[in-house]
Amino acid sequence: MSQEESDISLIIAQIVQKLKGSNLYAQLERQAWASLQRPEIKLESLKEDIKEFFKISGLFPLPSHPAAPPEHLKEPLVYMRKAQGSWEKRILKSLNSMCTELSIPLARKRPVGEQKELLNKWNEMGTDEPDLSLFRPVYAPKDFLEVLINLRNPNYENGDSLSFRTHLGLIQVPLKVKDIPELKECFIELGLNTGQLGIDDSTQVPPELFENEHVRIGQKVLAEQDSAAAQQYVRQGSPTALRAELWALILNISSQPEDILYYEQLKTNVIQHDLLVDSLIYKDVKLTASNDDYYFVFEDYLYQVLLCFSRDTSVLSHFAYNSASPPKSYIRGKLGLEEYAVFYPPNGKSNVIASSIAPLCFLYHEPSKLYQIFREMYVRFFFRLHSISSHPSGIVSLCLLFETLLQTYLPQLFYHLREIGAQPLRISFKWMVRAFSGYLATDQLLLLWDRILGYNSLEILAVLAAAVFAFRAVNLMEVTSLAAAEAVLADLSTLKVMPLLQIFLFATVT
Amino acid sequence: MSRVSVPCHVKGTVALQVGDVRTSHGRPGVLVIDVTFPSVAPFELQEITFKNYYTAFLSIRVRQHTSMHTPAKWVTCLRDHCLMPNPHSEEGAQDYVSLFKHQSPSMTFPKWLSHPVPCEQPVPLLEGLPDPSRVSSEVQQMWALTEMIRASHTSARIGRFDVDGCYDLNLLSYT
Predict the structure, then answer these.
(1) β-sheet bridge partners, residue B76
(2) Per-residue pLDDT reduced to its tens digit, A52-98
(3) Which of A268, A413, A417, A478 is the most buried (most CB within 10 A)?
(4) Nearest CB neighbour to B171, from listed A57, A64, A99
(5) Chain B residues within 8 A of A341 when measuring between CB atoms
(6) What is the largest CA-CA distance in chain A?
C-alpha cells in the first residue's frame, strides 16, 4: 500500500473501531452486505470507485492532509490558535490567583468522614448553602466578547482609519459566513411550504393537516431506529412525546449497563476528590437555578451532572478538534516531572455553563442518561461557544454571521443602533453563547435545539438572534440609548422561534 | 512504491508588476516563486506539498527537458488552481495542500454510487467472475485492515486522572 493509502486505511480502522457496537455500525454493515449482492458492483474496483466518489461528491470531508500537524486540525488559522492560547493563559492565571488568595488547593483527597457525608446528601446538594462569596467565576461572558472583538488577522489589509473595508460591527476577522440565499438553501426544511412543529401544530391548525402525519412518521423512525432519518426528521421539529428518544437516537446514546457503571465510577471520583472548580460549579448552578422559574427544580441534577462531567477523562478526546487545550498541572512536589503531569480538572474544562444542561432535564430523568446526552451535546456542539476558532459553528463565526445579517438586511436599524452606542452584538452575544437557554420559554428552546441537532450546526442561533432584532425593529428604532435597547430586548420569553425564523429567512423582502 | 522527497531550492518571491515598484502604489496581486532542483538526476515528479498562506489561485509552469537536441520548454501544468474559494475570507487560507501528478478532470463514476438503492433481494452473480488475483489482493488488504482493528485494543473506558491514587495539586502550569 502506498503511504497515502495506509494513512487512509488507518483512519478507516479508527472510525470502524469507534462505530463498533453501536446501532449505526449494524445498519451500515447490513447496507454494505445488501449492496455487495448487486451485479453492477465490481469487487476489484470497489475501493478505487469509493475513493473517487468521496473526492468528487464532496459529501464527506476528506481525511486531513498527512503533513498537517495536530494543532492544524484543532484550528487551521495560526492567529486564532495564538488568541485562544492567550485567552487560556488568562484563565489559568485567574484560577491560580484564586488558589493562592483563598489558600485553597486545586485538588485534594477528601477525608473519609467528608466522603460519607457527601454520599449521603448526593441527591440533595441543593440544600447546602456554602459561603461562595469569595469565589468569582473564572471569566464573565463580556470578557470573552472583548477578546473576540480584538481578534485581528495579521494578513488582512484594513488600514487604521474607518474605511469601506472596515467591518461596521464588532468582529473584524474575515471569516466566511452565509448570506440569506445560502441560508435558505441550507435550512430548506424551514421554508413556507414545509410543515413545522412550532407553527403548523398551533391550536388553530387542524392536526390532520400536518401534525398527525408528522407524529406517525416520528414513531416509524423510532421503530426502525434509523439515526440518519431521525436527524432529517427533527428539522421539522420533534413531537414532545418522542423528543427524548429521537435526540438519543441522533446522538447515538443507548443506555447500556456499562454506561450506568461508568457514571457511578464518575460519582465515586467526585466523592473521593474535592476540586476547586467544584465551588465554581456550585456558584454557577445556584445562579442558573435561582434566576429561572423553570430550572430551579433541577438544581440537584445540575450539581450531579456537572460534578461528574468534570471528572470524565473521556471528554479529553474532543480536544483533538477543539481549538482549546486542557490545563495542565503536576502532583504536589513533582513539578516538571512528566510522569506526574495531569490535566485539571480531569476533563480539561474549567468552565461549563449550567444553563446548557438545564433544558435537558425536562427530557431525561435518569441521571446517567441525562449525563450521557449532555456530554454528547457538549462535545458535539456547545464547546464551540466557548473557544476561539474559525469553525462555521464557532462563536466567532456566529457573531460575524449575526452582525452581517443585520447589517445587510436591516441596515437602517444597524446604523441607528451603532449611532446610539448600542452595538447589536453586545446585546445578542449572551443569547448565542448560552444557545438561548434561560432566555426563551422551554418549549421554544427545545424546538430550536431540535434544529441544532437536525442541521448539525449552531448557525441557527445567529439567524434567530437577527430575527429577534428584526421582530422588535420598530421599537428599537425609537430608542436612544444602549440601556433602552437592552430593555426592549430583555424579555424573550413570549417569543415563538419558528415563525420568527421562517419570516426572517423566507418572507422578508431582500 | 516508495516516495522520496526531492531536495529543491525555493527562491524568494518576485512580484509581477507593471511599472516601477517604488513609485506605483498598487500592491501586486501576482507573485512568482522559482523552484530549482540543483544537481539532481532527472526524476518524475509525483506530488507537490506545501502550506498555503493567503494565496487564492495557483499556476505551475515547468521547464521540461525532452531530449539532448531540442531546447527545454516551459509547460503549464496547472492554471489558476483555486486554493481559496473566496479570496476575501479565510477559507483555505492556511491549509496544507498536495498537488498530484494526475489532477485528472472529474471522471464519471459507476452509476450505483450516485444512486444508492435500498435493500433488495440478493441477485445471483450470473455472468463474468472477477479476476481472482485482483480479488485476492483486495481481500488481503481487507484482512490487514481487520488485523489492524484487532491490534488496537479498546483503551480502558474508565480513564484514571490521578497518579497512583494521588491527585493533590498546587497550581496550574503555564507551558
Answers:
(1) B61
(2) 665 555 445 556 787 888 899 899 999 999 999 999 999 999 889 98
(3) A417
(4) A99
(5) 173
(6) 73
Q: Whole-angstrom Cα distance, residue A239 to residue A149?
A: 39
Give the model's confidence band at A492: pLDDT under 50 very low, under 70 low, under 90 confident, else very high. very high
Chain A positions touching B152 (Cβ under 8 A) are: 13-14, 17
Q: Which of A41, A57, A176 sits opposite B91 (nearest CB)?
A: A176
Burial A267-294 (b: 16+ CB within 10 A, else e): bebbbbbbbbbbbbbbbbbbbbbeebeb
| Strand residues in A152-262 grouped as ranges (E) | none
Per 3-state DSSP, chain A is made up of helix, strand and coil in percentages (nearest 5) of: 60, 5, 35
- What is the reported pTM? 0.83
Q: How far apart are CA A154 and CA A177, in angstroms?
A: 20
C-alpha cell at A13: 480502522
Residue with cell 463498533: A20
Q: Exposed, middle or buried, A195 (CB in 10 Å: 0-12/13-18/19+)?
A: middle
Q: Which of B154, B167, B175 sits opposite A273 (nearest CB)?
A: B167
| Mean per-residue pLDDT, A214-233 | 95
- pLDDT at B106 exceeding the cut of 50: no
Query: How far apart, in whole angstroms, are the C-alpha atoms of residue B47 and residue A449?
Result: 45
Length of chain B: 175
Residue of A nearest to B53 (CA): A155
Q: How far is CA A394 from the centre of its chain?
A: 9
Distance CA A98, CA A417 (A): 38
ipTM: 0.79
Query: B36 forms bridges with which residues in the sheet?
Result: B9
Helix A459-471 to helix A395-409 angle, to the nearest 10 degrees?
30
Chain A's closest residue to B113, CA to CA, is: A53
Is the pLDDT higher at B21 or at A32?
A: A32
Strand, helix or coil at B73?
strand
CB contact under 8 A, B94 and A10: no
CA A292 – CA B102 distance, rounded (Å): 61
Residue pair A59/B114 in contact (Cβ under 8 Å)? The answer is no
Q: Are A440 and A495 in contact (CB under 8 A)?
A: yes
A414-to-A420, A466, A503 alpha-carbon distances in Å: 10, 11, 19
Q: With 70 as the cut, is the pLDDT of residue B111 above it?
A: no
Please determine, for residue B110, whether its predicted confidence score (pLDDT) is greater than 80. no
Q: Which of A342, A347, A437, A328 is nearest to A385 (CA)?
A: A437
- Give the other-Cβ count within 10 Å of A184's Cβ: 15
Highest mean pLDDT among A29-33, A284-288, B79-83 belongs to B79-83
**Chain B contacts of A3, Cβ < 8 Å?**
3
- Fill in the amino acid letter for A294: Y
Quick one: pLDDT band at residue B134, thresholds 50, 70, 90? low
The pLDDT of residue A24 is: 66
What gap in Å lies between CA A395 and CA A393, rounded to an integer?
7
Q: What are phi and psi of A268, to 5 degrees?
A: -60, -40
Q: What is the DSSP letter of A198?
A: T
Amino acid at B64: Q
Minimum mean pLDDT range among A435-449, B67-81, B100-114: B100-114
Angle, alpha carbons A323-A326-A331 (nearest 5°):
165
Task: Give A24-74 as a DSSP string.
Answer: HHHHHHHHHHHHHTSTT--GGGHHHHHHHHHHHH--SPPPPPTT--HHHHH
Q: How far apart are CA A24 and CA A32, in angstroms?
A: 12
> What would the 3-class secondary structure string for A122-137 be?
HHHHHHCCCCCCCCCC
